[in-house]
Design goal:
With 601 residues, the chain is α/β, with parallel strands linked by helices. Helices cover 29% and strands 18% of the residues. The protein folds into three domains: 260 residues, Aconitase, domain 3 (2-Layer Sandwich); 146 residues, 2-Layer Sandwich (Aconitase, domain 3); 155 residues, Aconitase, domain 4. The strands form six sheets. A seven-stranded mixed β-sheet has the order 22-21-20-19-23-24-25. The chain has a five-stranded parallel β-sheet with strand order 4-3-2-5-6, sandwiched between helices.
Length: 601
């Protein structure tokens, strides 16, 4: 077996598992954040469920550590009260990012299982642990049962050959991988990275790379811990670990060899993390602001890199540089090493530990038309504000903040760039929703045929609405951040069926991106493929989701607005406009059971 199969087998009643198996997996550590935490508690209370094991259950308030948003503050206190009543430990607003706290405090370890309402929980792959981001219903079920169903994914191995160029950072490795594989070539796979260059990576570097597995569509990016990493983890947590390694005769569905010596410093263009380009193509582009932090690049080595560039320099006039350490312990270490002094003397703003702008809950947001260069993992439209976000390494971000334009440390100019005016964009929408009804196994409805790949959760249901917990309010915000479909909710009809292309629902673990369709009465979503967390959330909410092969829509001559009939049990799909038929992938048994049950809970 490979790494993910061994970990799942070790945490189930199965001695051996293989891709496609549906397995109940015991979860060592169960986490809800301030984002999603209130909905987890609400699900538990609404269904009369109790906590399985408080010692394995945690809350982490990392999205909005300042509680600066009234709804976040309300949700945090709601979770605190529940935690007190149930003897659950809270890593409160002074602690930092939950996944990093799990690594540094030994809440997750090589070979362990970890779930959170954080779509980047698969960052734990960097230490050889199986971490998964899940939706509110999944986490509520784990809190109550200690285990959750999981479909064993197929696995891919990527071997990095050659020697890593000195100027290539861990962030550059992740961006080069996105350049090679895009957002969906690794979709649904457990990916194992190996080779001499991977062996040499530090804990911080592994965290950076594994944290962007979500942006590649992967279930997780695994890196087998070596002796040096085990020692580093032991120094942090004081605990002893043993790595889970793949068997030598493991078969992988796909294997790739990549020459890392050919990698170049990269930047992701605004809108999509996988829209990457050699930095040479964007050098000199004027920026308004810069951000260093997030679960991808908020470690002490990232701050040291930034400080080495900022020391003795000033941030360009009019530029705002915001720096947010990943955890409070890293913040204190940066203070002890004098890094905070360097940042302040350079003119940067340093905030308390947390996710920061990536979660729209703290410093790091930008305004309409604002160009930001960021070390975050996502730059979806609207994700970090209403401006434009480029993704890059800490070194490039720090250098660009000094230059006032995108550049590399070796080419910081003597005089910073000057500003030019930019256009601004604004979006709004206030659309009423429809009530929810039950759905049969045979569905008929008008189609919305949206032939776009990689429609992410911020396009479906933007993060500015995440504090809404009433499903009846969610429909009016559906697709209001998807270009060309901003008026979708006002034109959608009860029973409509959505047909989309690859990787629908990429990105966040937010349940609202499913519930907004239920709110509108959308009866089914059919896609070439789904983001892994999104598919789970839809199944758990009893919203039918099925997959098809690209040629099948041509077989039935589907056009926008055609009415179709779909049998969820057999997969038979008929275009009622011309009576042409095909058979797509049907419900699998676990999906059928959850649907019949009215949802996971």
């Amino acid at each position: 077996m490979n790494i993910i199969e061994k970990i799942i087998a070790n945490h189930s009643v199965q001695q051996r598992v293989q891709p496609g198996d549906i397995v109940d997996v015991f979860i060592d550590t169960r986490v809800a954040r301030d984002f999603g935490g209130a909905n987890v508690v609400k699900n538990l209370l609404d269904h009369g469920l109790e906590i399985n094991d408080p010692s394995k259950t945690f809350f982490t308030f990392d999205c909005n550590p300042g509680g600066s948003d009234q709804k976040y503050a309300t949700n945090q206190h709601y979770c605190r009260q529940f935690a007190r009543q149930n003897r659950i430990q809270v890593f409160d607003v002074d602690a930092g990012i939950g996944t990093h706290l799990a690594i540094d405090n030994g809440l997750a370890w090589p070979g362990s299982t970890f779930v959170s309402t954080d779509s980047h929980a698969n960052i734990l792959g960097g230490i050889g642990s199986f971490g998964q981001g899940m939706g509110d219903q999944d986490i509520a079920a784990v809190f109550a049962k200690g285990c959750i169903w999981f479909k064993v994914p197929p696995s891919v191995r990527i071997v990095f050959e050659g020697e890593k160029p000195e100027e290539i950072s861990a962030k550059d490795i992740a961006l080069n991988m996105l350049n090679i594989f895009g957002a969906n070539q690794l979709l649904g796979y457990s990916v194992e990275l190996s080779g001499p260059a991977i062996e040499q990576l530090t804990l911080d570097e592994r965290i950076t790379i594994s944290s962007m597995g979500t942006e590649m569509g992967a279930i997780i990016l695994f890196m087998t811990p070596n002796d040096a990493l085990i020692r580093e983890l032991r120094q942090l947590s004081g605990m002893h670990y043993h790595a889970v390694e793949p068997d030598p005769d493991t078969d992988y569905e796909k294997e790739f060899e990549i020459d890392i010596s050919l990698f170049k410093p990269m930047v992701a263009n605004p809108g999509h993390p996988h829209d990457t380009t050699n930095i040479e193509a964007v050098k000199g582009l004027k920026i308004d602001s810069a951000f260093i932090g997030s679960c991808t690049n908020g470690r002490i080595s990232d701050l040291r890199t930034a400080a080495s560039i900022l020391k003795g320099r000033k941030i360009a006039p009019g530029i705002v540089l915001k720096i947010v350490p990943a955890t409070d312990q890293i913040w204190k270490q940066a203070l002890d090493e004098g890094l905070i002094t360097i940042f302040k003397e350079a003119g940067a703003m340093v905030s308390n530990a947390g996710c920061a702008g990536c979660a729209e809950g703290q410093v790091g947001q930008n305004g309409p038309g604002e160009a930001t260069i960021s070390t975050g993992n996502r730059n979806f439209a609207g994700k970090q504000g209403k401006g434009f976000v480029y993704l890059a390494s800490p070194a490039i971000v720090a250098a660009s903040a000094v230059a006032g334009s995108i550049t590399v440390p070796q080419e910081i100019p003597l005089k910073p760039a000057v500003f030019e005016a930019r256009e601004k964009e604004f979006h709004s929408g206030n659309i009423p929703s429809n009530p929810k009804t039950e759905k049969p196994f045979i569905l008929e409805g008008r189609t919305w045929y949206i032939q776009k790949d990689d429609i992410d959760t911020d396009m479906i249901y933007h993060n500015r609405y995440l504090t809404i917990t009433d499903i009846h309010e969610m429909g009016k915000y559906c697709f209001d951040n998807l270009k060309g479909y901003e008026d979708f909710s006002s034109n959608a009809e009860w029973g409509d069926i959505i047909i989309v292309a690859k990787n629908f629902g990429a990105g966040s673990s937010r349940q609202q991106a499913v519930d907004c369709f239920i709110s509108l009465g959308i009866s089914c979503i059919i896609a070439e493929s789904f983001g892994a967390i999104y598919e789970r959330n839809a199944i758990n909410a009893a919203l039918p989701v099925l997959t098809y092969k690209p040629e099948q829509m041509k077989e039935i001559g589907l056009t926008q607005g055609d009415h179709i009939r779909i049998n969820l049990i057999t997969g038979e799909l008929e275009n009622l406009a011309n009576h042409r038929k095909t058979v797509i992938n049907k419900f699998y048994d676990a999906q059928k059971q959850i649907y019949q049950n009215g949802g996971l809970l």
